[in-house]
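Notes from the 1:1 (GR / supervisor)

We went over the backlog. Supervisor wanted to see one worked example end to end before approving the batch request, so GR pasted a single chain during the call. The sequence is below; no edits were made to it. Supervisor asked that the structure be written out right there so they could see what the output format looks like.
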Amino acid sequence: MPSIEAAARDLQDVAALWSAGETRAHAVVRAACEALVAGLDSPALRFLAACTRGEAEYDVPGLLPAALDELGLTFHPRGSKAGQEAAVRSLAHQTLAGSLPPRELTLRAHQRFGHDLPLAERLAELDDEYAILEHGDRAAAQIDAEVMAEARRLARETAVPGTSPQEH
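Structure output shown during the call:
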């Protein structure tokens, strides 16, 4: 069972990804269930966790802000710059955890934010470098290493209330 701090970070990450359009509402409900199992609790979190897959698309927009607020976490409105930045950091967490390959991190950041979000600019540049691998003199492993370094940098800048940046 994940720690309460890890569950809070995971819920915050999924919420950020949802706000940026990177994941579906049922993933938020799943994260709410996992948070309850880990020991986080609040009335809105319970309502959120009780949503069916069919209800999620309709209920998450109303329940998620309250659940995060009750837990002392941050809600980022859909389409906000802060939400986009939080989503990039969430993707970086997934890469560091081994659940999102480095090349996929750059691809998703580049596709979602292009070169328009300064925080994700280096990831977009690295995605461009992956695209020209067969024409350049760099190996994929070299680019992977740079992506991992960028993911670590992004994770260090992250702070979930109640945790320290080193925990990420």
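Supervisor's comment: The CA atoms of residues 109 and 120 lie 6 Å apart.
Batch request approved.
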